[in-house]
Amino acid sequence: MRISTILFTTALCALVLGCGGRPDSGPVKGRLETPGRLDPADHRAPGLPAGFGDTDPHEWQGITPAHYAVHGLDAARYQGAIDWAAARRAGVSFAWLKATEGGDRVDPGFDLNASAARAAGVPVGGYHFFYFCRPASEQAAWFIRNIPKRQGDLPPVLDIEWNPDSPSCKARPDAATVRSEMRTFLSLLERHYGTRPVVYTTPDFYKDNDLGSLSGVDFWLRAVTAHPSERYPGERWTFWQYTGTGVVPGVGGIVDINAFAGSRGAWESWLAARTQR
């Protein structure tokens, strides 16, 4: 979940601190942000559902995000405390919150927002930002240690992408190693939470590591300038992150917005099959 350019300047220091690499002397938590809330009416964007806006809208061609019936968001500490009732009224049907990174980082936004999302009736889950200088087994153990298994929560998410801005880890493993580490992480989390994790990634990472060769994966694909069918030709996908500069009622600043690939009925079926047991 890449931080948008608008947040980049204010978030850079927090990101640098979150790049991992120090011994596990205890969880390192990033600083919570308290951004002001924007009004979607001031940021109307063609191709988006009526309840949302975008501070940097794209001129969509062909299939637009509004074509899909089910939308949700992903957030981290940068959005602060979210008014989930307002977000739900605007059309937010699910949310993933950053939970952990590497083997010693915890995002305080998860504890701040997860319970409130559940109370408002928004299905919620946590995501882990993968760090290439730690074994996948250590990172899976860290996520499991910090994010309790909870019946009805969304599957955990593996957020895996290149991180060229990390000051402490410039590692770019070969594709076979990447896929092997992914399988290890996904297997360990599936065993613990009772449901397969979702995999979030970006076009360059997907292509560089031949992720299309992985089977049995629900992909969550970033594509902010075109439909996933253009950025990931021939790929199956379950979730589409279509903007990183979205405006949603109840959410501070800007936020990532996502669509589910199917109808409302398909969404209910997916939830029934894929939530934590």
Automatic annotation (TrEMBL):
Disulfide bond recorded as keyword: no
Entry protein name: Lysozyme
Keywords carried by this UniProt record: Glycosidase, Hydrolase
Pfam families, alphabetized: Glyco_hydro_25
Family of the protein in this entry: Belongs to the glycosyl hydrolase 25 family.
GO MF term list: lysozyme activity
GO biological process: carbohydrate catabolic process; cell wall macromolecule catabolic process; peptidoglycan catabolic process
